[in-house]
Amino acid sequence: MLIIGAKGFAKEVLEIFHQKDETQNLHFYDDVSADIADYLYEKFKILKNEDNARALFENHPEFTLGIGNPQLRSELSEKFQNLGGKLTSSISKFAEIGSFGVEIGKGCNILGGAKISNDAKIGQGTIIYYNSIITHDVVVGDFSEISPGATLLGRCEIGKFVKIGAGAIIFPDVKIGDYSVIASGAVVRNDIPANCMAAGVPAEIKKTF
After folding, report:
1. Does the predicted model carry a pTM greater than 0.90?
2. Which of 170, 166, 171, 196 minimizes the C-alpha distance to 183?
3. Collapsing DSSP states into helix, strand and coil, what is residue 172?
4. Which of 37, 103, 111, 170 has the most crowded Cβ, counting Cβ within 10 A?
5. How far apart are CA 55 and CA 35, in angstroms?
């Protein structure tokens, strides 16, 4: 398995594999950090160019995303699939996933303590952080980010490239448009259109992009 990235969020993803005792043949990738070492924690090889990644993919094609930026996650997922990689989700064994009707797209990262209920649908490349709650029939679009402790209540719809801040609550049946940002601690009772930042209790639109 190749984790794209070797700093920041990549270390969170590493813990998913460590908890499942799946660190054999685990590699990282970083071709932008001039100060990066050859190994992470003196154990995991860091690949530094596309030729190295392509060679690894010949025998171990799976890769997962260890970068937090949604747009960059999308770009890198396409890049490494074009190099021969197979985009794969990484899901903590301490996450709770419903038994019926759950759909999780490829390339998601679901961290410990996250709870995803029945008939929830999670788009590809999305991050579900620690202790977030996604209840029944919620839809989350591609390459979005659900921050720690956020709660998405029944039937709400989150667009693509959306960021839901830590501790935010999205009420049932609410729709959040593509590329919007919901601030930490916000309580969203009404729809938020695309390309907006909303904050407060109840949440109000503070600016547009």
Report:
1. yes
2. 166
3. coil
4. 170
5. 23
Which DSSP string corresponds to 89-107?
-EE-TTSEE-SSS-EE-TT
Tens of pLDDT, residues 67-84: 999 999 999 999 999 999
pLDDT score of 197: 98
DSSP-based three-state secondary structure for 139: strand
- The answer to whether 191 and 178 have CB atoms below 8 angstroms apart is no
Distance from C-alpha of 111 to C-alpha of 16, rounded to nearest angstrom:
7
Any residues with CB less than 8 A from the CB of 47 and at least 6 apart, and which? Answer: 2, 27, 28, 29, 30, 31, 53, 56
What phi, psi does 19 have (nearest 5°)?
-60, -30
- Diameter of the chain measured on Cα atoms: 52
Contact assessment for residue 107 and residue 89, using Cβ atoms and an 8 Å cutoff: yes
For 21, the token pair is 């005792």
